[in-house]
Amino acid sequence: MFEWVAVLKVIGILTATVWCLSWCRAWWHSRQYLDIPENISLSEEGFRKLPPLSVLIPACNEAASIESTAMGLLEQNYPNLQLIFINDRSTDGTGEIIDRLAAQNERITAIHIDTLPDGWLGKVHALHVATEQATGEWLLYTDADVSFEPNALVELVEFAQSHEIDHLAGLPRMKPAGALIEIAIAAFYTSSMFFVSAKRVANVEDPLAVGIGALNLVRASVFKQTEGFEWLKMETIDDVGLGLMMKRTGGRPLVARAGKQISLHWYQDIKEMTGGLEKNSPGLTKYSVLRAIGLLAILPVTVFGFCCTFFLPPMSIVAIWAVTIGFPLIFASTFSRQSSLSKISFILFPVGLTVLWFIFARALFLLWSRGGVQWRGTQYGIEQLKSGQRLEL
Questions:
Q1: Average pLDDT of the chain to the nearest whole number
Q2: What residues pair up with 58 in beta bridges, in sequence order?
Q3: Which of 157, 242, 285, 298 is the most buried (most CB within 10 A)?
Q4: 274 neighbors 182 (Cβ within 8 angstroms)
Q5: Among 117, 127, 108, 120, which residue's Cα sits nearest to residue 66?
Q6: Distance spanning both ends of the chain, measured CA to CA
């Protein structure tokens, strides 16, 4: 007779083994990320030789944060700085704030977009329009809710130049607004460390590309050799798409931690996070039902696997669960130090992962029930999104 209990025991042991190895992999990858140094000292001549920089900030209904971001950029001591703010069809006071700031400071260029052309995602189109007006040798694409430390721009450009790269993707310091959102962000951080190796990203022969919406710094001369944002006009994961585009052209990429230069409240609460990931997360499935089912199955299969450990002898159960709980405890300090998130948020990784799973499941349900993605008043059909996707996930 087939020994189902024996099979369940093996499943339990394998699940615990994969769990531990996954934490080790995430830790190993996290050690590959450089920290962009702060308080660098440049000679007067070195300061004068800093290349012209254009900072491009798309904004849709960002009245609550855009002025703070603008003031942080205006207080930078970077020479030859161009700031381009793009009001992308906002219905709040974003446009008025941008116009007022532009009238007060000649370094600011205000762009207003009233209508979205067919076949474009709003943010990608805004970046496309702004890039055509950028004059800098370096282009910094960032978001309207990012806070910049006083010497951030000098440190970012100097770091990129000293490492002779063409694309710098910087991980910001997160400032969670509550306990549950912090736990979810910690789970997102840990999962990202599992999948993204900084060494692979830096290898121009490797197809793995990374982009970060809060900080994508690119060399303009290399960007001009790419297909441009028109190639990405229907890519929902546009920040990573920019990284892919730069790498396809032969640009030298680097992903690093920029927590000493920039920070942000990624989302104010779980509700806002749920709405924010409604557009991006379905792209992970490549809009395939089978792939969606496979990704959604990972969490329940893992839970089932851990349940199978209870068929083991009592001492084995104690040992396996001690190791299972121990690995997050071991690595929590390292991840906390790297991300500025609390240790407990990483220890509660299963809770955060469950939150992300429900957010992902909801986004997929809405995708298939609506026949596409509804984003900022525009409906994008599944076939339209599929044909416009550039990432090979």
A1: 94
A2: 86
A3: 242
A4: no
A5: 108
A6: 42
Beta strands (DSSP E) in the chain are: 34-35, 53-59, 81-88, 108-113, 138-141, 146-148, 167-171, 173-174, 216-219, 253-257, 262-264, 372-375, 378-381
- Residue type at 182 in one-letter notation: E
Q: Identify whether the C-beta of residue 121 lies closer than 8 Å to the C-beta of residue 204.
A: no
Is the CB of residue 223 less than 8 Å from the CB of residue 132? no
- The DSSP secondary-structure symbol of 363 reads H
Side by side, the strands of the sheet bearing 253-257 are 34-35, 253-257, 167-171, 216-219, 138-141, 53-59, 81-88, 108-113
pLDDT higher than 60, residue 272 = yes
Question: Residue 47 in contact with residue 79, Cβ under 8 Å?
Answer: yes
Q: 274: closest CA among 378, 364, 144?
A: 364
Amino acid letter, residue 109: T
Query: CA 316, CA 301: separation in Å to the nearest integer?
Result: 21
SS3 at position 111? strand
pLDDT at 40: 84
Show the domains of the chain with their CATH numbers.
4-31+273-388 (no CATH), 34-172+212-267 (3.90.550.10)
| Residues contacting residue 6 through CB under 8 Å, at least 6 positions apart | none
Cα separation, 299 vs 9, in Å, equals 19
- For 221, phi and psi rounded to 5 degrees? -65, -35
Of 366, 177, 376, 190, nearest in space to 282 by CA: 366
pTM: predicted TM-score of the whole model, two decimal places: 0.94
Which amino acid, 77? N
Q: What are phi and psi of 365, to 5 degrees?
A: -60, -45
Per-residue pLDDT tens digits for 68-108:
999 999 999 999 999 999 999 999 999 999 999 999 999 99
pLDDT band at 247 (very low <50, low <70, confident <90, very high): very high
Where does residue 244 fall: left (phi above 0), alpha (psi -120 to 50 degrees), or beta otherwise?
alpha
